[in-house]
From TrEMBL, chain B:
Superkingdom of the organism of origin: Bacteria
Gene3D superfamilies (UniProt xref): 3.40.50.2300
Boundaries of every Response regulatory domain copy: 4-120
Modified residues (4-aspartylphosphate): 53
Protein name: Response regulator receiver domain-containing protein
A Gene Ontology biological process term: phosphorelay signal transduction system
A Pfam family the protein falls into: Response_reg
Signal peptide residues on this chain, from the entry's feature table: none
Keywords of this entry: Phosphoprotein
Length: 421, 127
């Protein structure tokens, strides 16, 4: 599509630029009217457009066959197969492509676990310390005639190593807790998007101006959003951001937020928008404008986290499932019933927060289609909240694997902290 | 002169514990903490058994072992390798370079003692 902007072409044929992007990269099949429209706009024969897709399909199937002995025998009949069963051929090709993508993701994650230098050094430190403690403790326990001078020395060593172990373990847990500790770009589309947003502080200044940039322009300029899926997700995020910015202009919204003590309900009434939109807007305000970090996490009906903006003292799990005691999940179980809870994250220096959560159902496929749920939880540091909340805090964690609370009614699996440390 | 072991390890409290265990069994225990100069230390006064850590400052235990195996004087020196890196490929690497025993941390004291004694018996038995 040299010489012609993708956005212009998309507009001319009545589809979104992101959808056109998927078509261009052979991630969406098209045919009939749409392919004729695109061909007309580009001034080429429709067959010329399908040739590229066909060649790409044949190529993918050849690659798949190369890894499979029986299929390789049938290679001479590949074109006949694609011609007679185009749907099956496409299914096979898409499945092969997906398998390759998944293998790549597994490799990236596995590589990270194996070669992450901080993780490797920390674990080495923990194991060395445990070794010294174990050896020394065994000597003290099993040597009856130990010289008092040696005994005192070993007691000192034990105390030293125990302190070192505690420090190493704390550093390790801090690292695992901290969602922003490492660069995670390069694996799943969600991670690409998270990394991009984190790099921008979750605030998109270009969409706040009266002559805001097009979301597509921002996506195209981004070097972090590499996969087509991440670009599509980024586009959706930015389109919603732009609408939020139009309904809640930055300056007046920031002033109102401060004046109301960050009360989402009051802001919802004042700007005539729903609570979830207020949550999103609060979480994307620049920190310097409101003097505090505000966190946000959203999930879909399955409980899968779909957006994460952590706040210091309230880390969000990157890979594992989150704490089931979060007000987010209370809200998910009761759509349209807002929840406000004072919460406290465990640890040596627990910090207090106020969590506002709400779940809103949508019917994107009409009244007869499935109901789609989205729940959101706003995380506000206790000290910036205007309302006086007298209720005792609800103790919550990040995820079961790294939660230090020994007694928890909702525990799903044992913690590595209670087991290892 | 008694049986002599050289322990190349950089964790002082592990050194102290191993020194205590082996000394009580009649071993003369020398220690060395720097990886970079470990080969010279071994060659200057070859021990009966070498206990070698993998993660050392200056030079890794694998590199030290490889160099020692290239020198006739230490080509068959019994070596016990101690490591917190217990993955299969580390063991393979150690074996490729000619390690005699490979032990992962955290180890039991009795295991270290048994391994060092077995290495000496193997060496003297083979001689």
């Amino acid at each position: 599509m040299v010489g012609r902007k993708q956005a212009d072409l998309a507009r001319a044929v009545g589809i979104s630029p992101s959808y056109l992007n998927l078509i261009e990269h052979n991630r969406r099949r098209i045919g009939g009217k749409l392919i004729n429209d695109i061909a007309r706009e580009l001034g080429v024969d429709a067959a010329a457009l399908t040739e590229g897709a066909e060649a790409e399909l044949l190529n993918t199937l050849r690659e798949a066959a190369a890894d499979h002995e029986r299929a390789a025998e049938d290679l001479p009949r590949l074109e006949e197969f694609v011609g007679r069963f185009p749907g099956w051929a496409r299914l096979l090709s898409d499945t092969r492509r997906r398998a390759v993508e998944l293998e790549h993701s597994v490799e990236v994650l596995s590589d990270r676990m194996t070669h992450d230098p901080f993780l490797s050094t920390s674990l080495h430190e923990v194991i060395s310390t445990v070794t010294a403690i174990r050896s020394t403790a065994t000597i003290l326990a099993e040597t009856r005639d130990i010289d008092p001078e040696w005994r005192d020395r070993f007691h000192r060593n034990m105390a030293e190593e125990s302190a070192r172990l505690a420090e190493s373990a704390e550093a390790l847990v801090r690292y695992l807790d901290d969602a922003s500790a490492t660069d995670i770009a390069g694996s799943t589309p969600q991670e690409e998007l998270d990394g991009w947003l984190r790099g921008r502080g979750f605030h998109i200044a270009e969409l706040e101006r009266s002559l805001a940039l097009e979301p597509e322009t921002l996506v195209n300029r981004s070097t972090e959003l590499q996969s087509a899926a991440a670009r599509e997700m980024g586009q959706k995020f930015l389109e919603r951001y732009r609408k939020d910015a139009e309904h809640m202009p930055l300056k007046s919204f920031a002033e109102a937020a401060t004046a109301t003590g960050f009360d989402p309900a009051a802001l919802s009434v004042r700007f005539g928008v729903d609570l979830t939109a207020v949550f999103r807007r609060l979480a994307t305000l620049p920190t310097e404008l409101v003097g505090a970090e505000i966190g946000l996490v959203t999930c879909d009906g399955s409980g899968t986290l779909t957006f994460r903006k952590p706040v210091e003292g309230f880390p969000l799990p990157r890979y594992s499932a989150a704490c089931p005691l979060w007000p987010l999940y209370q809200a998910l179980s009761r759509p349209m019933a807002p929840v406000r809870r004072r919460v406290e994250i465990g640890g040596r220096n627990p910090r207090g927060f106020v969590a506002y959560a709400v779940c809103q159902p949508a019917q994107p496929a009409g009244f007869d289609g499935p109901q789609v749920l989205e729940a959101a939880m706003l995380i506000l540091p206790l000290e910036i909240v205007g309302a006086e909340i007298l209720e005792p805090p609800q103790e919550v964690g990040t995820s079961c694997r790294i939660c230090p609370r020994a007694v928890c009614a909702a525990r799903r699996e044992p913690s590595i902290m209670s087991e290892a440390f | 002169m008694g049986k002599r072991v050289l322990l190349v390890e950089d964790e002082p409290n592990i050194i102290e514990a191993i020194r205590f265990i082996l000394s009580r069994d009649g071993w003369v225990v020398d220690t060395h903490s720097d990886g970079a100069s470990a080969v010279e230390a071994v060659l200057a006064n070859p021990p009966d058994v070498l206990v070698l850590d993998v993660m050392l400052p200056g030079k890794s235990g694998f590199d030290i072992l490889k160099e020692l195996r290239g020198v006739p004087a230490t080509g068959t020196l019994p070596v016990l390798m101690l490591t917190a890196k217990g993955q299969g490929r580390d063991r393979e690497l150690a074996e490729r370079y000619g390690v005699n025993r490979f032990m992962t941390k955290p180890f039991a004291n009795a295991e270290v003692l048994e391994a060092v004694n077995a290495l000496l018996e193997g060496a003297t038995g083979a001689a």
